[in-house]
Write a structure and sequence with these properties.
Number of helices: 0
Structural class: mainly beta
Number of domains: 2
Number of strands: 23
Shape: elongated
CATH architecture of the largest domain: Beta Barrel
Low-confidence stretches: 1-8, 163-169, 265-287
CATH superfamily of the largest domain: monomeric porin ompg
CATH class of the largest domain: Mainly Beta
Radius of gyration: 24 Å
Order of helices and strands: EEEEEEEEEEEEEEEEEEEEEEE
Largest sheet: 14 strands, antiparallel, barrel
Helix content: under 10%
Strand order of the largest sheet: 1-2-3-4-5-6-7-8-9-10-11-12-13-14
């Protein structure tokens, strides 16, 4: 049975905890928080929806939600992305604010580095009458290793605003901002760390604009406690967001993150997979080789995985079913086989031939996992 049909993988997480919030001219407050995130990854489509609420008291609360989707076209090393996004924010005492936009990007993916460039157009609305056209451009460069990833992103935004502006700002007809943000992520089975530093230059008005500069600093840590449960801590500050009417806030938050689909699983969280590769069949160490993978009949201890890798001297497999530990396959004539504890459902798999790069099997659809790597998507009935 060849398991190469197109399908999709979903992931849902729930965060529940408390946050210490502080902003200028307002007393600091400790508030319960809750957040929900859902994601679907198919071969060339991604969808994401999230929502959250912070309720300090009857007269201090905020609710927000967001959704986004993208479709990818072209080769995996240079895909074109077309997508759309929408977000809604409601603060007590302020009108509901929504932003909707469409975007287009050109991406460039190498083995260990890449980037993208693109832009978006949309509208921001506050209440029933304040509507602001919004135009944005963005680009980024990234580089990654076995366990880490760094990104440098630059984005610019202009919105033609009349009355939709932050409290205390002078009358204005245009808001513009330029953001530069550098971030780094480190992920391994025992913990995950992420940090970001940025600066924003913004102007209000035309003919005599008011300029301002503000800084962004965020850090977060995730520590798995058991399969499907992790402790998440974060601290930092966010920019003032005039389009949504959100003030600058400093925070410290602590929450439990629950992934229902992983509860009760035996495998630990995997480290970040090595970067995407393109099979060349060269046989040179450090270069991925073309492979195909199929699953044979079920046995008491799992299922036999058979891999075709012409000319190979060694074949290894990693999967969520193996706890992302490497498993050596044994040669069986023209194929390589191993007994793997695969249950029914969707699994992520990677293969390595002759000490080359880890890469998805060539006959399986691929998706981006939680750590930004492309992995093979294997469906076992």
């Amino acid at each position: 049975m060849l398991c190469g049909q197109s399908t999709a993988a979903t992931a849902t997480t729930l965060d529940a905890g408390v946050a210490l919030l502080a902003q200028e001219h307002v007393d600091a407050v400790v508030a319960p928080t809750v957040g929900l995130d859902w994601r679907l990854d198919a071969v060339r489509t991604t969808l994401r929806a999230s929502g959250g609420a912070t309720i300090a008291s009857a007269d201090r609360w905020a609710i927000q939600g967001a959704g986004a989707g993208s479709r990818f076209f072209g080769p995996s090393y240079a895909p074109r992305e077309i997508g759309a996004a929408v977000s809604v924010v409601r603060l007590l005492g302020a009108p509901t604010t929504g932003i909707a936009s469409v975007l287009a990007r050109q991406q460039f993916n190498g083995r260990s580095s890449g980037g993208w460039a693109g832009g978006s157009v949309g509208v921001a609305a506050r209440g029933h009458r304040d509507v602001a056209p919004v135009v944005a451009l963005d680009g980024a460069l990234w580089r990654r290793g076995e366990l880490w990833r760094t990104t440098l992103a630059v984005s610019g935004l202009t919105a033609w605003i009349d009355s939709a502006r932050a409290a205390g700002e002078p009358p204005a007809t245009r808001f513009s901002a330029l953001d530069v943000v550098g971030s780094v992520e480190w992920r391994e089975p025992r913990f995950e760390l992420a940090a970001a530093l940025g600066v924003r230059g913004s102007t209000w008005g035309e003919g005599g604009p008011r300029a301002a500069t503000s800084a962004l600093a965020l850090v977060s840590a995730t520590v798995p406690l058991r399969p499907g449960v992790a402790l998440v801590g974060s601290a930092g500050n966010q920019y003032t967001d005039p389009l949504r009417g959100v003030p600058a806030v400093r925070h410290f938050a602590l929450a439990l993150r629950i992934r229902p689909s992983a509860l009760g699983a035996n495998a630990p969280r995997r480290p970040r997979a090595p970067p995407d590769t393109i099979g060349t069949g060269s046989g040179v160490p450090g270069v991925a080789r073309p492979t195909t993978l199929e699953v044979l009949g079920a046995e008491a201890e799992g299922r036999t995985v058979r891999v075709s890798a012409p000319g190979a001297r060694r074949v290894e497999l990693r999967s969520d079913a193996t706890g992302w530990q490497s498993v050596d396959l044994a040669r069986r004539g023209d194929y390589w086989e191993a007994l793997v504890p695969l249950g029914s459902g969707t699994h992520h798999v990677m293969l390595r031939v002759d000490e080359g790069e880890w890469a998805p099997p060539g006959n399986l659809p691929t998706v981006e996992d939680d750590f930004g790597s492309r992995v093979g998507l294997l469906v076992v009935p």
